[in-house]
């Protein structure tokens, strides 16, 4: 299951898919993200989460430019409760390069609190390793 999202200029800003082999939902965010884009894309992620009931998300922001902090209030109030109800438990987030993307991720991390386990990473291999570890029976 895969979905691609384009902005009003026809440029893809999100590819989200259920990675059956790794048992996680992989989100590849790209470019400058508007509030509407983050909401639209996040609803698509939520639909995949609801369909698969997969408790693991790998959110890749390495291609994101600038801040998306303006969406965090909506994510906290609207998306998180629905994601939790659909089974989300572990969220590995690879931060965007640059101070604005990192600040956006840190703000979201604070908002998540103890709702589910969220870890911030700069390296995709470390994020993947953490998710794999969380899937182990003893984790």
Descriptive key words:
about 140 residues, alpha/beta, Transcription Regulator spoIIAA, 6-stranded mixed sheet, 4 helices, 6 strands, STAS/SEC14 domain-containing protein
Biggest β-sheet description: 6 strands, mixed
Topology as H/E string? EEEHEHEHEH
Low-pLDDT parts are none
Outline: globular
What average pLDDT do the residues reach? 94
Number of strands: 6
Helix tally equals 4
**What is the radius of gyration computed over CA atoms, rounded to a whole number of angstroms?**
14 Å
The CATH topology is given as Transcription Regulator spoIIAA
CATH homology-level superfamily: STAS domain
Structural class per helix/strand content? alpha/beta
Total tally of structural domains: 1
Q: Tell me the strand order in the biggest sheet.
A: 1-2-3-4-5-6
CATH architecture, by name, is 2-Layer Sandwich
Question: What is the terminal-to-terminal distance?
Answer: 27 Å
CATH class: Alpha Beta
Beta content comes to 25-35%
| Range of helix content | 40-55%
Organism: Hymenobacter perfusus
Protein name: STAS/SEC14 domain-containing protein
Describe this structure in words.
This protein is an alpha/beta fold. The chain has a single domain, classed as Transcription Regulator spoIIAA, CATH 3.30.750.24. The chain is 41% helix and 30% strand. A six-stranded mixed β-sheet has the order 1-2-3-4-5-6, with helices on both faces. Strand 2 (12-19) and strand 3 form a beta hairpin. The model has no long low-confidence stretch (mean pLDDT 94).
């Amino acid at each position: 299951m895969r979905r691609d999202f384009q902005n009003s200029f026809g440029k893809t800003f999100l590819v989200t898919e259920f990675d059956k082999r790794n048992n996680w939902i992989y989100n590849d965010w790209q470019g400058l993200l508007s509030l509407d884009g983050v909401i639209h894309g996040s609803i698509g992620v939520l639909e995949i989460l609801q369909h698969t009931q997969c408790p693991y998300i790998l959110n890749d922001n390495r291609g994101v430019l600038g801040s998306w902090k303006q969406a965090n209030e909506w994510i906290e109030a609207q998306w998180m409760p629905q994601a939790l109800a659909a089974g989300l438990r572990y969220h590995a987030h690879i931060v965007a390069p640059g101070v604005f993307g990192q600040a956006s991720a840190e703000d979201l991390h604070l908002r998540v609190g103890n709702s589910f386990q969220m870890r911030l990473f700069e390296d995709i291999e470390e994020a993947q390793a953490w998710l794999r570890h969380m899937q182990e029976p003893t984790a």
